[in-house]
Amino acid sequence: MSLARRIIPCLDVDGDRVVKGVNFVGLRDAGDPAELAARYNAEGADELVVLDIAASRDQRPTFLETIRRVAAELAIPLTAGGGIRSADDARAVLRAGADKITLNTAAVARPELISETSREFGAQAVVLAIDAKRHGDEWMVMVRGGRDDANMNAITWAKRGVALGAGEILVTSMDRDGTKSGFDTALTAAISSAVSVPVIASGGAKLPDHFAEVFTDGHADAALAASIFHDRIQPIRELKEFLYARGIPVRLPC
Amino acid sequence: MKITLLDYGAGNVASVERALQRLGAESQRAVTPECVANANALVLPGVGHFETLIRALDERKLRAPLLNSIHRGVPFLGICLGLQALYVGSEEAPTMVGLQLFPARVRSLPAVVKLPHMGWNRLVVRRSSRLLDGVDADAYFYFAHSYAVIEPGKETVASCDYGKEFVAVLEQKKMCAVQFHPEKSGEAGAQVLRNFLGMCA
User: Fold this and answer.
1) What CATH number did the domain enclosing B91 receive?
2) Residue B107 structural domain
């Protein structure tokens, strides 16, 4: 009896459209968020993540409306983030229909944001998102959509985030993101063994083998990907059947 | 029949509302003692902290009407924290008094596993029940919690094993509760909600 490993499609949203890019740049339109959400819900996704990549103040109402439209399509958990700077921002996102929030840049700037939101909404609702990039023999935290170096070790930051109340860590490898060359299993394993909460691996997925690797060698509890699901390069059902055949516990869609 | 959702300002009311809507059930939110007292069927959704839930119930004076309704046999479904609230108390907030319908205390799951227990897990079914009628024995349900009831009682229908075996589903006459989130558990969760609606009809 063990907890199923989760497959999580991610919708990067700009206003009311899903977009995609390579290494956080060169964005292209990838569809309607609610339509994609309905598709993933039916295909057996275990959870959905929606990220507001613009995260600008004036786009906020549009993003909240997007969350409402997406949530209406789902019978699975929804995580939403991007631009959450306060407990009020978090509350608005949760009220719009998300079950969890992700904190990233704002938590680096003001780590108490993690404890504030965790106290109010519970640790299970607070996901600390870490964008990590390799520098020599360590991984450093990047912020502002991967543009700035926060001058902080990613493993240290993950541990601190959990101590402050984060209930889950979403770690994105900036080196692998968009490359389709596989997850950074070393990074994922390092984070996973350092913290006591579930870890979601992100960045670099393409092949079913990549997912198998990140669940076994990377000790990930969940794996996230975007464009390979949007573009139907990797159907979720087939991916889960592949993992199941490998002896990795997954929830097979009926 | 209209389902009344206890809305105490926190929790996953909207998700439960949407899930019931998808099944064609009508629902309303109750914020006053009168609404709870007059309800024909009650759902107590819950996420977050034990203290927040118990405080909110007491501040809004919902405890007495809720207990009255349950004792009168009004169909009741507690979800997640809504299951935990039925017990005497919780390690999460030792000074708070629960609804005391069952004698056990809610405990922290052991730290030998990653906490929160977050994700999809299966049940160990102990006896037949209306709530799990037609649910596949291998079905996965979505859990998101760190505390649980680890002492099963005769009301326990199914348990789940994560670090320790804990109560996942309970049913006693028309009082039901689940530790997982049926509103987030895909088709298996929808079947549980459908069964509850069947008990309300």
Assistant:
1) 3.40.50.880
2) 2-200
Chain pair A-B, CB pairs under 8 angstroms: 95
CB atoms within 10 A of CB B113: 14
Measure in Å the smallest separation between the Cα of A4 and chain B Cα atoms: 5
On whether residue A87 sits in a domain, the answer given is yes
Instruction: Select which of A14, A52, A89, A131 is catalytic.
Output: A131
Residue B185 contacts residue B193 (beta carbons within 8 Å): no
Residue B47 sits at the chain A interface (C-beta within 8 Å): yes
Which A residues in the span 135-164 are in contact with B, Cβ-Cβ below 8 Å?
Answer: none
- Please indicate whether residue B176 is annotated as part of the active site: no
Q: Can you point out the beta strands (E) in A23-144?
A: 25-31, 48-52, 78-81, 100-103, 126-135, 138-143
Q: Write out pLDDT tens, residues B124-183.
A: 999 999 999 999 999 999 999 999 999 999 999 999 999 999 999 999 999 999 999 999
* pLDDT exceeds cutoff 60 at B100: yes
Indicate which CATH number applies to the domain containing A124: 3.20.20.70
DSSP assigned state of A234: S
Q: What percent of chain B has pLDDT over 90?
A: 92
Taking contacts as CB-CB distances below 8 angstroms, the residues of chain B near A6 are 119-120
- In terms of residue numbers, what domain contains A99? 6-245
Q: Which pLDDT belongs to residue A26?
A: 64
Asked whether A138 and A175 are in contact (CB, 8 A), the reply is: no
Within a domain: residue A253? no
Confirm whether B117 is a catalytic residue.
Answer: no
The nearest CA of chain B is from the CA of A53 a distance in Å of: 25
Residue of B90, B142, B146, B192 best to disrupt the A interface, most CBs of A under 10 A: B142
When CB atoms are compared, the residue of B12, B121, B186 closest to A99 is B12
In a domain, A19, yes or no: yes
Cα R_g (chain B), whole angstroms: 15
* Residue A138 CB neighbours (<10 A): 12
pLDDT digits (tens, 9 = 90+) for B32-64: 999 999 999 999 998 888 998 999 999 999 999
| SS3 label, residue A170 | strand
Give A113's Cβ-side CA count (13 Å radius): 23
Indicate the number of domains in chain A. Answer: 1
Task: Examine residue A99 and state whether it is found in any structural domain, yes or no.
Answer: yes
Q: Domain count of chain B?
A: 1
